[in-house]
Amino acid sequence: MKQGNAVLSVDKLSKTIGKRKVVDNVSFHIDQGEIFGFLGPNGAGKTTTIRMLVGLIRPTSGQIRIGGYDLQSQYLQAIRQVGCIVENPECYPYLTGRENLELFTRMVDTIPTERIDEVIEFVELDQRIDDPVKTYSLGMKQRLGIAQALLGNPQLLILDEPTNGLDPAGIRELRSFIRKLADEKGISVFISSHILHEIQLLCDRVAIIHEGRVLTTERVKQLVNRPTFVEWHLDPIEKGKDVFEQLSYISHLDIQADQGKVLVQMPPDKIAATNQHLVENQIQIMRIHPHQMTLEDIFLQITGSDTIV
Amino acid sequence: MSNLIYNEMIKMIRKKRLLVITLILIVLIPIFTYAQYKMLQNTIKNVGSSNWRTILQQQIVDQQNRLASSRVPEEYKHLIKLNIQQRQYYLDHNINPNAPGAPTFVRGFVEQGISLFLPLLVIILAADIVSSEHSLGTIKLLLTRPVPRWKILLSKYIALLLNISFVMILTILLCYLISGIIFGYKGWTFPVISGFQSKGEELITDYVHVLPQWKYILMAYGLAWFICIVIGTLSFMVSVLMKNTASSMGVMLAALISGNLLEQVAHSWPALKYSAFTHLRLTDYLAGNTSLIPGMSLPFSLTVLSAWAIVSLVIAFATFTRQDVLT
Amino acid sequence: MHKQKWMSVMIQITALLSFLILAAGFVLSIQDILSPPTTNALTKKEEIPPPIKKENGFIVGLGDSLTRGIGDEKGLGYIGIVRAQLQKKTPNSTIQFTNLAINGQTSSELVDQLKQHHVQHLIKQARWIPITIGGNDLRVSAKDIQKIDLKLAERNRIRFEKNLEQILATIRTHNPQAPVFLFSLYNPYGDLADKELTSSVVLEWNETLQAVGQKYPNVVIVPIFDLFQLQPSKYLSSDHLHPNHEGYQRMAMRLLQVIEDTSKGREQ
């Protein structure tokens, strides 16, 4: 593992609450400017892990290093590198947005007051910043949450289920914020989610966590290139079947002659090549329908088990 | 640090906690003022004289009559005897213990309110100072700043102390302004007697001295301030331990009220001497009111109260700096 | 916005000042309680309290539980009834009233009470002074109900005589004019077996009372022996010692009659 330039490195992190091992031997690292997804169903240990990353929960064992500082022994230096929203974007509802930001600015000596206006502008909240937070919509609260997270010029932004409760427009907006942060400012972003699609659209790399363990850590491109089910509506079926059987990357073949289609499992990036191959064999293609990959599918593939709770 | 305290003060002010307390005072003080006015009118009617000497003399005789009754328990008779001697002393030295005026009301308010009313206001202030951060979820924002946890808690504690002080001065001010409408605004320099001591059934007057009323009020509120800080510290601990404002307020109210009730039986249950709530009436030491409970003295009371406060603080800080924030 | 900021800054400065002031008060009070100034700055002062207005009647009740009104289920006592009646007759003035009587008080204790500066002061201002005294002196002569120790009773009577002289003398020194209404004693055991014996002792004491009273000007003996002679149970309360409301009413009627005489006398 390359410890040197990793913004965040987590090594064999575990947390036991009561008798339950909520987080079990979790390790991963995030590089500079990288958007890292933390994917898993609810109750998989995502929130507990995140709370350990920001010092809200003490790990039972394992090590967390942020920007090279150990979170346990060099808490202040380490946490200074981090901006975060844990779960809901809470602020003091009886204060205005600006007052909330002023409050958090006063807590850290190194933040200049001009920084407040910078972050307000960045999250495009200038119109409503002097209104009380209790009048904000969830999307505006989310933006205020990001603003407070950015106040300290963090190297690492930690967001826990940031799209929870947002409408599609809000989600799109948030996504563009995050991209902008990573691309323009070189900030590393750690995002947890239980929706594969979201991670797929945003992240560079992803760790998949289930029942407290990290099942796999890989590039998102790699992840989405896992074999998926593709429906081929073609004619004649028999001839098509012969062609598919010759292809080495087809892992599963299901003929549904009555509906005029063949269901195969294959890597999605091979669809174009397969299509060409079929056409060359004088097979008529009516429709190609690749199934959207879900988190469940991936779990099925990795664990072989078929129950995800 | 001063920034952190400033933050906590802002929260306290903007949460409108101080406003609630001001409103409570503005509603209740006129009621107390009127009640006292009615009581005075009633006494004048019963005694048939508005001369305080006549009233005082009548009160002495009334108490002597209570002494003669066989239904009064011995320990109370002891108190009554001392009380008679004290009143007699006032009469002999021509000092009216209750000269009417707003400052006298201010003094009476703290003497009556020190064991229940003022602590109640403090509980309103203190009970949610930490627990509200939990119920709002803002604790997660607070504890992910590059600031050590003990500093955050300390800033909250100092803000609480400042707020308690503010509320006490506010109480004095509102009592003065409101009660003055009926009783008049004079009387800061009225003489008040302090320094009564007792030895058995004898009232010792060797240390008796006259204070101007303003000084007596300052000292009485100083003692009440100490009580409020102790109660505030207890509530502070409860607020750290409980994640929910309603339950932390409930726990403190239950403790305060049952502590007040138990105080009344403390003379027959000596272990209660070590309960903080038995020692709330510190102004009694100033007024020279004798306690039924044997072995009570100002140093003892201060020791017990301080011990409770210090233990509470230690528990609060130990818990806050170590606890996992799970919700 | 600016107003709010200004407000909170003001509150905080006030809070800090409050903290310092109260802390100072706390330290002061501890000093004052733990090491009070040893020089006793207080000396008894002779004060001149405002005199009671002349047109107002001022009743000062002295003595024992009868003047206190014990046994009256309406809580008035003869003094309460008298006061109400007088008030009714003179609606323009206020009848003021101080009850210095103490339950169970004996003549010796009344002598002590009259030594108090403020009691003397009140007597000085009194217009009427009703007294009931002697009942308790007599009662302690009986070891238990009905059984009178005649020797002890005689000793007590002599002391009572002496005390009564002193009481009346003191009152006269401080207030030479106000009429003193001295109630005589009655026999609460008039319906019991020994009634001849008990009544004779009470009458003997009443003679003493009469004799002493006559020595002083303006002392009116109000006899009440007869009121409770024939049907004591009807006019006594449940303790069979103190009058009930009816009993007090009868006492009040007697007192009212003589009080009216004195006030008429004054007006002339």
How would you describe this structure to a colleague?
- With 309 residues, chain A is of the alpha/beta class.
- Chain A has helices at residues 46-53, 75-79, 97-107, 114-122, 138-150, 168-185, 196-202, 220-224, 237-246, 271-280, 295-303; strands at 6-17, 20-31, 35-39, 61-66, 69-70, 82-85, 156-160, 188-193, 205-210, 213-219, 228-235, 252-256, 261-266, 284-290.
- In chain A, helix 4 (114-122) crosses helix 5.
- Chain A is elongated, with a radius of gyration of 23 Å.
- The two termini of chain A are 32 Å apart.
- The model of chain A has no long low-confidence stretch (mean pLDDT 85).
- Chain B is mostly helical.
- Chain B has one domain (2-24, 99-322).
- Helix content of chain B is 69%, strand content 4%.
- Chain B has 13 helices and four strands.
- Chain B has helices spanning 2-14, 17-47, 52-68, 74-92, 102-113, 117-126, 131-136, 139-142, 149-183, 213-241, 245-263, 283-287, 298-322; strands spanning 191-194, 197-199, 202-204, 209-212.
- In chain B, the strands form two sheets. Chain B has a two-stranded antiparallel ribbon with strand order 1-4. Chain B has a two-stranded antiparallel ribbon with strand order 2-3.
- Chain B is globular.
- In chain B, 45% of the residues are buried.
- Chain C is α/β, with parallel strands linked by helices.
- Chain C folds into two domains: 1-40; 58-267, Rossmann fold.
- In chain C, 53% of the residues lie in helices and 10% in strands.
- Chain C contains ten helices and seven strands.
- Chain C has helices spanning 2-34, 65-68, 77-89, 107-113, 117-125, 135-139, 150-174, 195-214, 232-235, 245-267; strands spanning 58-63, 96-99, 129-132, 142-144, 147-148, 180-183, 219-222.
- In chain C, helix 8 (195-214) links the parallel strand 6 and strand 7 (219-222).
- The mean pLDDT of chain C is 82.
- Chains in contact: A-B, B-C.
